Description:
Layout: H1 30-38, H2 45-55, H3 62-74, E1 76-79, H4 87-98, E2 112-115, H5 120-126, E3 133-138, H6 148-160, E4 165-169, H7 172-176, H8 180-194, E5 198-202, H9 205-208, H10 211-223, E6 228-230, H11 242-259, E7 264-266, H12 274-287, E8 300-302, H13 305-318
Parallel strand pairs: 1-2, 1-8, 2-3, 3-4, 4-5, 5-6, 6-7
Amino acid sequence: MTMPTTTSPPGAAGAAAPTGTPFADVTTSAATLHRFLHGLPGVDAVGLEARAAALGTRSIKTTAKAHAIDLAISMIDLTTLEGADTVGKVRALGAKAVHPDPTDRSTPRTAAVCVYPDMVATAKEAVAGSDVKVASVATAFPAGRAALAVKLADVRDAVAAGADEIDMVIDRGAFLSGDYLKVYEEIVAVKEACEHARLKVIFETGELSTYDNIRRASWLGMIAGADFIKTSTGKVGVNATPANTLLMLQAVRDFRAQTGVQVGVKPAGGIRTTKDALKFLVLVNETVGADWLDNHWFRFGASSLLNDLLMQRQKLATGRYSGPDYVTVD
């Protein structure tokens, strides 16, 4: 895919990317942004799904499988996002992130724990002294139905409490109405409010309806400054799939080719088994390569996935299948 890399000065106050940044001229107005996003190549849905399915048949065995399981564990954002979350539950989740298998200290730590903003301080204490990050959903997660001032306050509260990463949701209503500039400006504002924290932008792909929309959302998020693009909240019927993740991987690959800027990808929701996780790692390896096979650039948004990875890891080590009673229940 060949895209223009331009550095024209912005033409509308507050609407454009800073002068000198890639694609600055496409954000000068609603019309130019709409024209750019609708000028992206259309997605061949049949070809995309066939490619994802074909890659899903690849098998990983023996030593390579053990390495892949450890890699997948290290890429998990261990998540609890329930109304019934308690301080005790978040502390236990943090302890599990730091030592996923207390009987085997060679088990990798997870990348992060992901919680609501009011639980950030608790999570931060629970992972203190480790390299496990604390991520927080914000911007009126999961629906995103709030005024921008409320969303920004949500972000600032999480950052002030110690969040290392912010997972924001886009305004899907605005996006689906074609008001791309509003979505862009909100992402830019949230990115600024994040200060030092990395920003993951959640599209809720299950609500975007078409692959073309997922491609447009991916480019919109990256142009606005996302550090990660993320499939889903995990709160709707259709979440991460191999096809929509493959499409987003292609987008970050093409974006880096045009700009030199690398953006991470986070599939979330519905990835529950080791077999599922390994399929996604194959997608990463075959689409964007080794540069993304690291938890700085690829994450799984998951909770139950870790338990299955631990059971499969124990089976490879001992030759016996331990079963769910041998791992902690989140």
